[in-house]
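I am hoping you can look over what I have pasted underneath with an eye to the fold:
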Amino acid sequence: MDLGLTGKVAIVGGASMGIGYGIARQLALEGARVVISARREPGLSKAAETLRSETGAEILPVQADCRRAEDCARVVATTLDRFGGIDALVNNDGAPPLGQLATFDDAAWAKAVEQNLMYVVRMTRAAVPHITARGGGGILNITAISAIQPIAGFGLSVATWGGVIGFAKTLSLEVAKDDINVNTICPGYIETQRLEKVFAADGGDPQVMRRKLEAEVPMGRIGTVADIAGLAALLVSPRGRYITGTAIQVDGGLLRGVR
């Protein structure tokens, strides 16, 4: 299926590795011009080189710390300077530390809010006028299954990503008239460096934890980045434009609730 992304301009955060990299790669394969951002320059430059060689697409790396308002503004400004517009925005980054909620002080909470919630708010606020000027486009947020099925020890993420889902749902109502769709993907257990931290979180055998998590998933396996990337590309494409205001779990059936 042609998703209609050829020549479109997409910004993807946290794209030097993991889910962000996978989404950037899928968009590039679909013909989009992709701006990738991440905090660490060496990994970002390497990712850009690999994406160019694998896809032949135009890839623009912009080093940025998503927790800083000025960096969010610079990513958007640099995109406009290079490509003249924005058609799609994928808000994606890592996650705050794991731990019991009672152990986190105000500084930890402030960092979590800046990283998970205010990053999405700032990038979206800066990008929406330019997506509107292009006649519409897609906005997508990447959170986690814990945002809709809380997990003990993940409280900083649960609380702040819960805010992202509420923000996205409200925004979807406000920008629908401009042919902009807004969605959130809530990945389950996906093969990333973040999951490796989960495996080792209790100090036990990582392979024992892996088998435990696999047993929780009805499909019997840990997900791959590709499981997320294909849906992400659809949701920010013209083909997926009528899908809006959703929070979609991609989890192999892990979510047990009916909603």
Q: What stands out?
A: The chain has two domains: 9-188+225-248, 190-222. Residues 9-188+225-248 form a domain with the Rossmann fold fold (CATH 3.40.50.720).
